[in-house]
Amino acid sequence: MEIRFQQANAGNYLSAARGKEQISYLVIHFTANDGDTAKNNVDYFTNSNISTSAHYFVDEKEVWQSVREADIAWHCGTKGTYFHPYCRNANSIGIELCSCIKNGKYYFQPGTVENAVQLVRMLMQKYDIAPDHVVRHYDVTHKNCPAPFVENAAAWQDFKRRLTEEVDDMTADEVKNLIAQSKTVYNTVASVPEWGRATVEKLEQKGWLKGEGGSAGLNLPEEMLRVLVINDRAGIYGD
Ligand SMILES: [Zn+2]
Hints:
Strand content: 15-25%
Radius of gyration: 21 Å
Number of helices: 9
Distance between the termini: 31 Å
Bound molecules: zinc ion
Oligomer: single chain
């Protein structure tokens, strides 16, 4: 996905040089505007000195970045009570979704949600962030933000589901094709490369991965192993 960058006014964020290990939450917001664009927002944060910011702005066509990930954006702080024990500006990335209003209610265009899913999935992978560390501004301070995901809990659950869905939604045929196309097949745990061995051992222990018996052994294609490892990193198989 292509991301355009336009730096926010220096008064809107904290230059921080955070390391990868210091970024452990992704916080979802909405702009509370009606039909704005990601570019509108980065322009605003470039031209205004207002001590607030977010790293990313998403609309149905584009993603714009306004604060570098290593810098701290001011998007979920409060002088009041924190309702999340750990998530703060200092350890999170703030993502704003452009919104629309209909009959006095805020909503997101489907394309905006789709672009946000892609962006969040990319950041989850980049920073090794588990799905339960993707939170709403509401979860941090109880602000009604992002309203479409606070007022409609099912929409938020659907968003969360889509952060890990790809593998779950593969059809049996797609799985078969994946197997047919792959060249390397592992038949014993010992033959599984280092990067996938812990996952295979876990699945065997839980009884979820079984050999086909006889000489076939595990019969685990490399492409399938990659999928299992991605799922494992996403926390799907537990500890
Ligand atoms: Zn917010």
